[in-house]
Design goal:
This protein is of the alpha/beta class. The chain has a single domain, classed as Maf protein. It is built from six helices and seven strands. Strands 1, 2, 3, 4, 5, 6 and 7 form a seven-stranded mixed beta sheet that branches. β5 and β6 form a beta hairpin. α3 packs across α4.
Amino acid sequence: MSIILASGSPRRRELLEMLGLAFEVRPARGGENPPEHAGPEETVLVLSEAKASEVAEHSGPENVIVAADTIVWLDGRLLGKPHSEAEAAQMLRALSGREHEVWTGVTVLGCGRALRGAERTLVRFRALSDEEIAAYIATGEPMDKAGAYGAQGYASLFVEGITGDFFNVMGLPLCRLGKMLAEVGVKLL
């Protein structure tokens, strides 16, 4: 049995390596187009399932596929990865001094089973100045991350509190994933 991570995310790769898992990376090529008029939970479940299914089409039945999708949800709208520095600044200004939700959908395909689940974590930012936002964007860190920030990097300076799974904010809720992997026969401990 081989584990395949259906994601090109360096953070997801680091998290699986931290668990000591042997795996290969095969990012899904499909776009991250969220379903229209869907809430955060449905959005991440649909997107993670699409990634897992795409990679499974080119994999043998002996493989375990792990796919995930993470979004930031604020005021009833999705904040995905910014397409420009201006959009990143707009997102960070919206998050400044506020609490928001981070949702990750996880799909695990293996042993003839399809498991999916969603994790929600609340993150509270302190108030950010325009200078801090500009300096953070200049690091390049926010450009490939949902909501334009990475809580494990420079943006850790902005996070006043987290309620829920910290690793969910990094893109892979490890407690939930561990349970799902155990259900398809992958033991982590």
